[in-house]
Amino acid sequence: MEIGGKMRIIYVPQYPTPMRYQEWWMWKLPEEFRKAGYEVLILGEVYAEVLENKRGGFGMFSPINLSIMFETEQIRQYMLLDIKEDDVLFLSDISFPGLFCNALYHKECPKMFAFCHATSINRFDYFKSRSYSKFPVESSHSFLFDTVFVGSEYHQKKLIDTGAKITDKELYWKNTHVTYLPFPPLQYAKEISKVYNIMSASRPTQQKVDLELEEEVAITFGDIHRPTSRSWDEYYQNLAMSEVLLITAHEDTFGYQIVDAIVNGCVPLARNGLAYPELLPKKYLYDSKDELLEKIHHVLIGDVAVPKLLCEKQMINFYKTIIEEMEAD
User: Fold this and answer.
1) What is the DSSP annotation of 165-205?
2) What confidence tens digit (pLDDT) does each residue in 107-127 have?
3) What is the 8-class DSSP label of residue 13?
4) What's the CATH fold of domain 8-180+314-327?
5) pTM given for the model
């Protein structure tokens, strides 16, 4: 497969929001593709600006109505394209809202790749009430692509195991490739004095926070700092001012909070499960309330240093890994 201007990537981004990770998928991936010598066509690039004015304000996630409008426009643009024999399509999220894949049954590219951030098998997913019907649709879409990239081995296993249970015939998602996620280009805070013992930055939802466990921690160690700022710079400063980042999530597909904490000099402590063992040594994982309380104590008395990410090398090579996979015959 030739590059250097001879191959075009038709890039299909998610609807962008002010959440920095989602913005990366709109701008950073196309930038890296161009650096590698590709011509890149971004579907919906101009329309994203139109919808930005409709949304207004700060939002952590893509509003579903505007996301549907965005994907519908991307489908329209794609169906009008003249597909060339060396075109490559890259879809930045296979499952949300999940409309674009349907167009690919009518008009394929010679090579097609996608990223899957999460699916309706997440028991706290927006579509959880429809997950029994939505997941088979997502799974059938996965067969359209040469490779579907996923952010963790935990995520990959969950997709394959759930697919096997639902179909009873063959494994869905057998074409997945674990890339982890890109290492964040953070302007992180440095040399800031510690002000808070423990910080919890997760959304107060059933998926992201175990309120009962956090209450036990607060009883033992005092108040838990919960930053209210929606500025990323202030968020990083809060991490830099905290000794411990407490993570009590019941579901997660990667765990970017851990990365944020480490690069800002804060010790993350997370459940021994989900994707967290792929990111952290066992020393920073807990299996019970008592173990968590003991580990917090050791951090606060200075016995535990900020860890190194187990998958940092893979994260740094994220774009290279995707490009190499796309260029493979």
Assistant:
1) HHHSSS-TTTTEEE---PPP------SPPP-EEEE--S-SS
2) 999 999 999 987 777 776 655
3) P
4) Rossmann fold (3.40.50)
5) 0.89
